[in-house]
Amino acid sequence: MWIITLRINTVKRKRGNTVLNKVSALMDDTAKIDNDTFSRIEEKIYRDKARAEIALNSISDAVICTDMYGNIDYLNIAAEIMTGWSRKEANGCPIGKVFKIINGVTRKPSRNPVDLVLRSNEPRKLAADTVLITRDDREVAIEDSASPIHNWDGKLTGVVIVFHDVSDAKALTLKMAYFAQHDFLTNLPNRVLLNDRIAHAITSAKRSGKQLAVLFLDLDNFKHINDSLGHETGDKLLQSVTKRLSACMRSSDTVSRQGGDEFIILLEEGKNGEDAATIADKIQATLTLPHTINKRELHISTSIGISVYPSDGQDAETLIKSADTAMYHAKKKGRNNYQFFENDMNIRAVDRQLIETNLRIAIDKQEFFLLYQPKVNLITGKIAGAEALLRWMHPKLGEVAPEKFVAIAEDSGLIVPIGRWVLREACAYAKQWMEVSLVAMPIAVNISAQEFHQKNFVTRVRTILKDTGLEAHYLELEITESTLMRDAVASTEILRELKNLGVQLAVDDFGTGYSSLSYLKQFPIDVLKIDQSFVHDIAIATDSGIIVSAVIGMGNNLKLRVVAEGVENQTQLTFLKARHCEEGQGYFFSKPLTSAQFTALLEASISPWNNDLAVGYR
Hints:
By secondary structure, the chain is α/β, with parallel strands linked by helices. The chain folds into three domains: about 1-170, PAS domain (Beta-Lactamase), CATH 3.30.450.20; about 180-345, Reverse transcriptase/Diguanylate cyclase domain (Alpha-Beta Plaits); about 355-615, EAL domain (TIM Barrel, Alpha-Beta Barrel), CATH 3.20.20. Helix 16 packs parallel to helix 18 (about 455-470). The chain contains 25 helices and 23 strands. It starts with a helix and ends in a 15-residue tail after the last helix.
């Protein structure tokens, strides 16, 4: 601070013994000072003072100087701007009037550092969270220090305060601290803050003897929407979900986003599991209502797992893990439902992880194979086509049933590469059958929701057809009704692109999804497949029979080919034929066949149920 010391102690322009004595102290006692020498010294001091003024006014830090009595005798430009006081107005004012500070947390006045420095003759830091109250009552967060000013004899002559505005830095720090505990997209608490709240809730529950519940939510099929419509639409959908979840909660509860499409909810002060079930029902009811995003109506549901303290876990980590396990069980049960945690779910969770790990290996080692189930023309009795069915032969586990691994493949995203292999394999065999038996008929392939909504799905179909040499109209793609209705507008566009390729299109499991006859008319489809659950209980007087009759009549009126799945007996067949259902498939005609068996069936031109030779295929 030598510049400030020099400024404060500038030799006055008055010649006299006092001035001469001070100047002579800087020189040799025996030196003789003439007027020219004195002028040169005075000019140098003036230049140093001007240089100090320029320097102090060029820095961004505010500088305020006081005398020995704490009265202001200097402000630089930055200090004028920050305090709202000009140098002229502040000159001679007590420091407390111009430099008015408080503690930003307690809102109480802070002790002025000038007083402390004048008493101790030592530098002092400004207290943490110091806030400057400006002349027009604005608040500015500041930090830095106050230091004593000494003359060349080391005598205390005043105090200098140097400070700067840290409002932006503090705001950034607060923002960073906030987002360290909150999700940036939804502003919901993240896993860090949730764990802390669960810990506090457990402590409270121990004292009160009450329960608390943790709900783990995963949005069903969100990935398909995000992949097909883009991340912007996906983000807006997550924000819509957030608003609805928050509206379902009490003030004591916590909604948290864990990332992706996973949410965790902490329900405090619960009396029993019934409270959690009530909230879960409420959540599912509100989330299944259409979400309007970018003028599109999007449908989504959620699978929920519920764990309860203290029975399902004694800490946050265990409770969340138990709820997560229960959520996967809810997905396995068909999605859009909730399940409470049960101890044996841990065994199933381990099995699920084992299946997923082995699925990844199975892709590389080509452990999958296809079976082919004939479709039969119910009028002529001849084979009208076949449906390709995925199977997995594990080297140790043996043949793994589709119901044990398909849902896991869908949840993990592995269904996409698996589905790509299925489509190529089925097309290659269909082409081979035509060459061997000279029988031209379509091969049907099931397409998962994830595959269908992949951006390059149509291109991939076109490439596979070209590579295998199969003509497009011999490929029939089966897409479930729920997949199509998840985003009907996007689905219509994809279907039209496939139709332009010449591919046949079928709505699979018709009647089990969100039926919409208006969209059914808009979809460029060729086939309606009646779900086997309706066919199974066919009897003329039952509801199932009425539904099947209605679907067949509607399909015929729309000039669509209707195929009944799961035909198992003569009663069902008679019923279907009487209502002019065109095709059927099921164990009554034939079980799924290996490629070799199906080839032999085609070569023999066997009618699967009218010919005695077909008995071996049932």
